[in-house]
Amino acid sequence: MLILTTGGTIDKIYFDAKSEYEIGEPTITHIFQEVGATLPHEIISLMRKDSLEINDEDRALIRKNCVECQASQILITHGTDTMCETAAALQDIQGKTIVLTGALAPARFKITDAVFNVGTAIGAAQSKPPGVYIAMNGQIFEAGTVRKNREAGKFERI
């Protein structure tokens, strides 16, 4: 499995001296270690951006990595605010199962949805047919059928 990291809340860390959050190193490696995951995988860190900063050029880079890799199962960690837009940009890629996930609270927090979402995404990448999906809140949504409800703090079907 190929894992592409792009940043987002899942990778945010708090800098007390600055009283702000910044995107740090990808947390996926730590998540795998903590849960004892033995799934063969490769991790490529493409960028460390808040998803509101991800633009069409960044989406083209994500797409290029998905298209050119040998893996048929791809997990993308991504910020939640523009995850749906990135999923839409990947929808016509053939022969690969691509699952985007992220977190509403940083993975480094004691209370976070990150580990649960990553686990759901890994299961989806291994079991769903080729296509593009979003794994959030214990659900797997096909790209183009989901939106983030910011007020409710969850993803929901359109």
UniProtKB/TrEMBL annotation:
Transmembrane segments: none annotated. Pfam families: Asparaginase (PF00710). Residues 2-150 form the L-asparaginase N-terminal domain. SUPFAM superfamilies: Glutaminase/Asparaginase. PANTHER family: 60 KDA LYSOPHOSPHOLIPASE, L-ASPARAGINASE. This is L-asparaginase 1. The gene is ansA.
